[in-house]
Design a protein that fits this description.
By secondary structure, the chain is of the alpha+beta class. 46% of the residues lie in helices and 10% in strands. It contains 24 helices and 16 strands. It has helices spanning 12-34, 43-60, 88-96, 102-126, 131-143, 145-149, 154-176, 179-193, 198-217, 226-253, 261-265, 318-329, 336-353, 359-363, 379-399, 406-426, 430-457, 463-479, 503-515, 536-540, 554-560, 584-588, 644-650, 752-761, and strands at residues 523-527, 543-544, 591-596, 613-617, 622-625, 633-636, 638-641, 661-664, 682-688, 692-699, 704-708, 716-720, 723-725, 728-730, 734-739, 742-750. The strands form four sheets. A five-stranded mixed sheet has the order 2-1-3-5-4. Strands 9-10-16-12-13 form a five-stranded antiparallel sheet, with no helix packed on it. Strands 6-11-15-14 form a four-stranded antiparallel sheet, with no helix packed on it. Helix 7 packs parallel to helix 9 and helix 12 crosses helix 15 (379-399). The chain is globular and about 95 Å long.
Length: 765
C-alpha cells in the first residue's frame, strides 16, 4: 500500500526499545492494583469476580461450568457472554488456580491491555511509523480513555484488548497476502467476537471495513486478498460458531432479545463529555459523587440519560490531544490508511453521541445494533482509533521537514479551554472547574514542550522515546490514576473471598447446613445490602433465587419481576405472581433465608407480623427465615391443568397443597392418586451437580410426577431408569417428569449442544 508520509529510517531495535519503555510505564501505571493496595471495583468484583470463582471451583471439583444453580434459580453459563468460559486467559487461570484472587483478576485485565499495546507497537513497526508514535499510541490505548475510566467493565475491556492484536495480524496478512497470517488474524478475531458485547460488535464492523478498504485500495490485485481473508474467516468461524449460536439462543429466551431505539438512546454520550479530552477531571469525575456535575447530571437537563459518571470520561492524555490537533494541520491526507481511521473515528463518534445527532437513528438499522443498549460504549473503540491517529500525528510532527505548528496548536488549545470555561460558567460550576483546568493546563504545557522539541530529539534514537514515555506516564498516572470508579480497597469486597469471615455468610452457611435434607436444597436471597453482594452465592456455592446479571431468562423475569440487580432496597420489585416473600412462588422457589440491608418491611410492604421469622442482625444485614419453603424435589400425585400465561397475568394461584400437587399446562394424564397406608413414596436427591441432578423416587399406585424446583429450560433433558423422558414445564417456571408406579432413578442432565442441534435441524422433541 502507499507510504507517502515523510519517514526517517526505523529499526526493530527502536521499536523494541519502545516496547520496553511501554512495559516499564505499564508496570508503573498498574502498580496501585498490582501491589494489592486497591482493586478494580463495581462490575469487576460484583459480577466478574464471582463468575471467575465459579468457573475455577467447577473445574477443580470436576464439574461442568456450563450451568450454575447458584443464581436466578439456575442460569445457562455456557451461553452467557459474561461467564468467562470462552475467555482464554481467564479460563487458563481458572484451570490453574482453584481460588482466584482479586489481584489475579485485575492482573489478567491489565495484562490483556498490555498485550494490545504491544500489538499496536508491532502494527506501527510494520507501517514504518516512528517508534515514539508507536509508544504514544500504546500508552494512550492501554491507560487512556474508556480503557482506564471503565476498567471495571471487564468483558468490554477484554474485547477492546483483542482489537489491536486482530488489526496487527489482519494488516500483516494483507501486507504479505499470507494465508498463514490470515489464519492468525481469524483466531484473534474469534477471541474478540467471543466477548459478544457492543464493543466487540463495533470493532468487528471497523475491522471488516478495514479489510474491504485494504482490498480495494492496495496496489496488489484484489484476487490476492482472497487466500488470507478466506483463511481468517474459516479459522474464526470454526471457533465462534457454537458459542455465538448458543448466545443467540439465549438472547431469544432472555429478557432482552432486542433493544428499541428509545431504550438505546438513553445510553447516549452527551456532547459536553467530549471536553474530558481536554481535562480528565473537569466535571469532578474522580471525586465524591456529590461533587460530580457533568453529564448526565441534572444541571445538563438530561434526565433520560442513564450512564454512570465514569462512562462519560474519555481522557487519553495531553500529548495525544496535541498530536491529534497537529494531525489536522498537516499529514492527514498523506497516508490512505490513516485517512481510513479518521473516517472510522468520525463514525464511532457519531454512534457514541446517540440521540444528539441524526446519525444513530440511521445506524440503528444496521443488523445487530438493536441488541445493545448504550451507544456510549462506542467510546472504547473510538479511543483506540484515536490512539492510532495520535501516534501517527506524533510520527508526522517528529519527522516533518517543517517546524511543528505551535501557533496553530496554541490557538486550538485556547479555543478548547475557553469552551470548557464557558460551559462551567453557564452551569454555575466555574469554581469547581478552575482547579482541574489549571492542572490540565500544566500537563498541556508539558506536552506542548514535547511537541516543540520532538524534531530535535527525533535524531537521537532513544531520547524521544524516554521523553514520551515519561510524559505520558506522569500524565496518565495523575489524571487517569486510581479513583472511586476504578480502584477501591480490597477489604471492601471481603464477602467475595471464599475464606471470608463475614458473619452474614457464616450464618447463612450454618443455617443451610442445618436445614439440609435428602429432598431439600434451600435457597437464599441477598437484597439491598451492597452492590457487590447479589452474586456472592457464586463464590460460596449456595443457591440464590436471584443475583446480578443484565441478561436473565425471560420466563423468570415475567414470573417474578426480578431486575438485573438487588443492590438497593428499591431494586427488589415484586410481580403479581410473586407479590411478597409470603407467597406460593417464594415457597416453591425454596426461599428459606432472606438477608436484607434494611428491615424487610421496608422492601416488602405486604408482609404481616409472623410471616417470616427474624433470625439475626449481622454487621451487614437483617436475616429472616421462611419456614414454609418447600423442598427442592417433590413427588406430586395430583396434576391440575392451568394456563401459565394467564397466571402470570393475573397472579392467581390455585388453592392446592403443592407438596402433593403440580400445575401443568398439558398433563399427559390427569392423575389424582394417593399412596395407600404403609406404602412408601417420595423423592430424594441422590446427587446434585451443576449440570446433572439424580433423584430417587418411590412412586405410589397410579403414578405421579417428580417435580424439580429449578428453572425450566429447554436444554435440560430427563431420563427415567436410563430411558429418555419428557420434561414438562411445571408450576409456571419449574420442571417435572411423569413417572409410573414403583422405584425409579430420575436423572436431569443439561445438554445444550443437543438442544442447539435440534433447533438447527428443526427437529421436535
Amino acid at each position: 500500500m502507499s507510504r507517502e508520509v515523510t519517514e526517517r529510517p526505523q529499526t526493530n531495535v527502536s521499536h523494541g526499545a519502545a516496547a520496553l519503555v511501554f512495559l516499564a510505564a505499564a508496570v508503573v501505571l498498574a502498580f496501585p492494583w498490582a501491589s494489592g493496595r486497591v482493586t478494580v471495583p463495581w462490575d469487576a468484583k460484583a459480577h466478574f469476580q464471582p463468575q471467575f470463582a465459579f468457573l475455577a471451583h467447577a473445574l477443580h471439583s470436576g464439574q461442568s461450568p456450563f450451568w450454575t444453580p447458584n443464581v436466578f434459580a439456575g442460569s445457562p453459563q455456557l451461553a452467557d457472554p459474561q461467564s468467562l468460559i470462552f475467555s482464554p486467559f481467564f479460563l487458563l487461570a481458572a484451570w490453574l488456580v482453584p481460588e482466584p484472587s482479586f489481584a489475579l483478576e485485575d492482573g489478567i485485565v491489565f495484562a490483556m491491555l498490555a498485550m494490545g499495546g504491544l500489538a499496536f507497537i508491532a502494527y506501527f513497526r510494520d507501517r514504518k511509523f516512528s517508534a515514539e508514535g508507536a509508544l504514544l499510541c500504546a500508552l494512550a490505548f492501554a491507560f487512556g480513555g474508556s480503557a482506564a475510566w471503565r476498567i471495571q467493565h471487564t468483558g468490554q475491556v477484554m474485547s477492546l484488548a483483542w482489537f489491536p492484536v486482530t488489526l496487527f495480524l489482519l494488516a500483516r496478512a494483507l501486507d504479505r497476502r499470507s494465508a498463514q497470517w490470515g489464519a492468525y488474524a481469524g483466531v484473534a478475531a474469534a477471541f474478540l467476537v467471543l466477548g459478544r458485547d457492543q464493543v466487540a460488535f463495533l470493532e468487528v464492523l471497523v475491522l471488516s471495513a478495514y479489510a474491504v478498504f485494504r482490498v480495494f485500495s492496495d496496489d496488489a490485485k484484489i484476487s490476492t486478498a482472497v487466500a488470507p481473508l478466506a483463511a481468517g474467516a474459516a479459522c474464526g468461524i470454526a471457533i465462534i460458531i457454537v458459542p455465538l449460536l448458543l448466545t443467540m439462543e439465549l438472547a431469544s429466551q432472555s429478557n432482552r432479545p432486542a433493544i428499541d431505539l428509545e431504550g438505546a438512546l438513553r445510553g447516549s454520550l452527551h456532547p459536553a463529555a467530549l471536553l474530558t479530552f481536554v481535562s480528565a477531571n473537569l466535571f469532578g469525575t474522580d471525586g465524591p459523587l456529590a461533587n460530580f456535575w457533568g453529564p448526565p447530571a441534572a444541571v445538563f437537563g438530561s434526565p433520560d440519560l442513564f450512564l454512570a459518571r465514569n462512562m462519560c470520561d474519555i481522557y487519553i492524555g495531553a500529548l495525544p490531544l496535541l498530536s491529534l490537533i497537529a494531525l489536522t494541520r498537516h499529514g492527514l491526507p498523506s497516508n490512505r490508511e490513516i485517512s481510513f481511521f479518521s473516517a472510522a473515528a468520525l463514525a464511532l463518534l457519531l454512534y457514541a453521541l446517540g440521540r444528539f445527532t441524526p446519525a444513530f437513528a440511521l445506524m440503528f438499522h444496521i443488523p445487530g445494533v438493536d441488541l445493545f443498549r448504550r451507544p456510549a460504549d462506542a467510546t472504547f473503540p473510538l479511543c483506540a482509533v484515536l490512539a492510532i491517529l495520535a501516534g501517527f500525528g506524533l510520527n508526522v510532527v517528529a519527522n516533518a521537514p517543517s517546524k511543528p505548528p505551535l501557533r496553530y496548536l496554541a490557538a486550538a488549545l485556547g479555543v478548547l479551554f475557553a469552551l470548557a470555561i464557558a460551559l462551567a460558567w453557564s452551569k454555575d460550576h466555574l469554581s469547581a472547574a478552575l482547579l482541574p483546568l489549571a492542572q490540565s493546563a500544566g500537563f498541556v504545557s508539558l506536552a506542548f514542550l514535547v511537541i516543540a522539541v520532538a524534531p530535535q530529539l527525533a535524531t537521537r534514537r532513544y531520547a524521544l522515546l524516554a521523553v514520551v514515555g515519561a510524559t505520558m506516564t506522569l500524565d496518565l498516572a495523575f489524571n487517569n490514576g486510581p479513583n472511586e470508579s476504578t480502584a477501591l480497597p480490597p477489604q471492601n469486597f471481603d464477602v467475595l473471598r471464599a475464606d471470608t469471615q463475614n458473619d452474614t455468610i457464616a450464618l447463612l452457611r450454618a443455617r443451610l447446613a442445618a436445614t439440609a435434607a435428602p429432598d431439600r436444597r434451600d435457597r437464599v436471597e441477598l437484597a439491598g445490602i451492597d452492590f457487590h453482594w447479589p452474586n456472592a452465592s457464586l463464590v460460596h456455592g449456595f443457591d440464590q433465587e436471584f443475583g446480578y446479571n443484565p441478561v436473565r431468562l425471560r420466563l423468570l423475569e415475567d414470573a417474578t419481576g426480578v431486575g438485573d440487580h438487588l443492590a438497593l432496597p428499591d431494586q427488589r420489585v415484586f410481580s403479581k405472581l410473586y407479590p411478597s416473600y409470603r407467597s406460593t412462588l417464594a415457597d416453591l422457589m425454596g426461599l428459606r433465608f432472606i438477608a436484607t440491608g434494611v428491615p424487610i418491611e421496608q422492601i416488602d410492604k405486604n408482609l404481616k407480623p409472623g410471616d417470616l421469622e427474624f433470625i439475626a442482625r449481622t454487621k451487614d444485614a437483617y436475616v429472616y427465615e421462611n419456614k414454609r419453603a418447600l423442598p427442592r424435589v417433590l413427588l406430586a400425585t395430583c396434576a391440575t391443568r392451568v394456563d401459565f400465561a394467564q397466571m402470570i397475568e393475573d397472579g392467581v394461584w390455585p388453592d392446592l397443597d403443592y407438596r402433593a400437587s403440580v400445575l401443568l399446562q398439558e398433563p399427559p394424564v390427569c392423575r389424582h392418586s394417593r399412596p395407600e397406608e404403609g406404602e412408601e413414596s417420595g423423592a430424594r436427591i441422590r446427587s446434585y451437580g451443576n449440570t446433572e441432578v439424580v433423584i430417587d423416587a418411590d412412586v405410589p399406585r397410579g403414578g405421579g410426577y417428580v417435580v424439580l424446583n429449578d428453572i425450566y429450560h429447554p436444554s435440560w433433558t430427563a431420563e427415567i431408569d436410563g430411558e429418555p423422558a419428557e420434561i414438562l414445564r411445571a408450576n409456571v417456571i419449574f420442571r417435572a417428569v411423569a413417572v409410573s408406579q414403583g422405584k425409579h432413578e430420575v436423572r436431569f442432565v443439561y445438554r445444550p449442544f443437543d438442544e442447539l442441534w435440534r433447533r438447527l435441524t428443526g427437529r421436535t422433541q
